[in-house]
Amino acid sequence: MAGKVxxxxxxxxMGSGNxxxxxxxxxxxxxxNDKTRLIPKLYTEIPKYEYTLxxxxxxxxxxxxxxxxxxxYTFRDYWNKKYFANIFDKDFxxxxxxxxxxxxxxxxxxxxxxxxxxxxxxxxxxxxxxxxSMKKLCVDGLNNLAERMQTKPFEFIINDFMxxxxxxxxxxxxxxxxxxxxxxxxxxYSQDFSNNHDTYLLDxxxxxxxxxxxxxxxxxxxxxxxxxxxxxxxxxxxxxxINSRTxxxxxxxxxxxxxxxxxxxxxxxxx
Length: 271
Fold this sequence. Notes:
Elements lengths: L4 E7 L6 H5 L3 E9 L3 H8 L7 H10 L6 H16 L5 H13 L29 H18 L4 E5 L7 H4 L4 E5 L16 H13 L3 E10 L2 E2 L1 H10 L2 E9 L10 E9 L6
Parallel strand pairs: 1-2, 1-4, 2-3, 4-5
Antiparallel strand pairs: 5-6, 5-8, 7-8
Helix pairs in contact: 4-5
């Protein structure tokens, strides 16, 4: 990709946004898409402001400085109400940062009704959750993220990937970043990402005239991803092996499992 300038870099399954924020290339526009509105809306809002410790303290004080675990659950209910009301203001940016620090695994996850329901990480031996160092970490992280978002022409959008214009996804001078749900066995397909979704995505890879970077499994639990393997062999795509074991998902309670996690790309890399 050295020296090349893309028209658009499109991260089709943005998730946390780590890939679109850190991709090392030049483009006229960097687009992050996700079907869940939280991250696209937050990332649109974050670069508008500068963040300070006194402002963060005001919010922490509103909730008893999170001195008992019940404070977290009161705060979680409050956060969900704002989220459902589509109130993405500066306070909500602070509040989401606090929520992520306090919830289990520090990850925002929603149930089938779209409600955030992660449990509380716990206070440990402290009388309140947020020490000075953690508050500074929150504020510095928001300001650093705001600065990063001002270094490139970013745009964040909310769509199911199948509703994105197919012609745009297959345009010659675009770069697609594709990190979909890792689906392999038929019994692992869900309502959110079905066999039809998987097939549609592979059709995009086959048809696109632009560059792409695609993440998935070639093999898991002894079963081969035959459709992907066939496509790779047919088009002579490049394979980069990135992981051979996983302990994610339902397999965590049973220990790590053997996988073949790869990056598939049509980009010629220099040696």
